[in-house]
Design brief:
By secondary structure, this protein is mainly alpha-helical. The protein contains 14 helices and two strands, in the order H-H-E-E-H-H-H-H-H-H-H-H-H-H-H-H. It has a two-stranded antiparallel ribbon.
């Protein structure tokens, strides 16, 4: 998913010179599909980067002698994160920033117990952020100028979180389910979609499918909690928790069903993997 998106962005840059020029050509934020040469909307291609963006905390999880392929896992995580982060800056994707930050905090806090190693890692991270801030403020290697000229910087400055039209769409689509319980997109939400998996379902099909989807969502949460309670390796827990976090943030902020339905099916497959691991662990204990 990461490298299809990344190579599509690279192809767009080769064809149009910059993402800004591509946006002018397509009249919107688009990239060129790697295989078909057709335009892909920023929303769709950003979903492909979501899982790679969540992998940053894996680099900071301690390994142990019983964990296989640690170096390979961390190398893949690093490459996927760099490719994804570079791409979302060019595409101006605010959701990607949220995924990178929230997944890092959740994995770092939940997957490990407080220890001297954890505190020292956190100290190194904080000092690195401070050093980066100093270098950025002094425009080291032109970082500040490059960031200020990027599409992501423009989008972050153009709207505050409360001014984001998605917030109003969430409110109106939720309230609209009570005035239009059968859906049908009759509420005026100000956007084509509510940009939220559950609210989009309610907006289009009514309150009953909305409630059914809420009920279905509880199942993956219980599966993940069961998995985290088991005695798995820290990197194993961190990897699954990071990917799960990326899925849920995307569900909260993007029109998943309408934009790219395979993303939801991949999530279902992913939850099936975790559930199978839980069942196999339970069978081993019984035996």
């Amino acid at each position: 998913m990461t490298f299809f998106g990344f190579l599509s962005v690279v192809k767009t840059l080769i064809l149009y010179g910059s993402m800004e020029a591509a946006s002018i050509h397509f009249v919107g934020r688009y990239a060129v599909d790697l295989w078909s040469n057709e335009p892909i909307s920023a929303t769709v291609i950003n979903l492909r980067f979501s899982l790679g963006l969540a992998l940053l905390p894996i680099l900071f999880l301690a390994k142990d002698k019983y964990t296989p392929y640690v170096k390979s896992i961390k190398l893949i995580s690093l490459v996927c994160f760099i490719a994804s982060f570079y791409s979302i800056i060019l595409l101006g994707n605010r959701t990607g920033i949220a995924i990178a930050i929230i997944s890092f905090l959740i994995v770092f806090i939940i997957s490990r117990k407080i220890s001297l190693k954890k505190v020292s890692n956190l100290f190194v991270i904080v000092m690195s952020i401070i050093l980066f801030a100093i270098l950025y403020n002094n425009n080291w290697l032109g970082l500040k100028a490059s960031w200020q000229a990027s599409a992501l910087s423009y989008r972050l400055q153009s709207n505050s979180s409360l001014e984001d039209p998605r917030v109003n769409a969430w409110i109106e689509s939720f309230l609209g389910m009570f005035t239009n319980p059968l859906g049908g997109k009759k509420s005026d939400i100000g956007l084509t979609y509510a940009h939220n998996l559950w609210l989009d379902v309610g907006y289009e099909t009514g309150i009953l499918p909305f409630l059914l989807l809420i009920g279905f969502t509880i199942i993956p949460l219980t599966v993940l909690i069961t998995f985290l309670k088991k005695n798995h390796h820290v990197i194993f827990k961190g990897l699954f928790l990071a990917i799960f976090t990326a899925f849920f943030i995307s569900f909260f902020l993007e029109p998943i069903i309408q934009a790219w339905f395979p993303y939801f099916t991949i999530f279902c497959f992913f939850i099936g993997i975790i559930q199978k691991i839980n069942l196999k662990t339970k069978e081993k204990k019984i035996l």
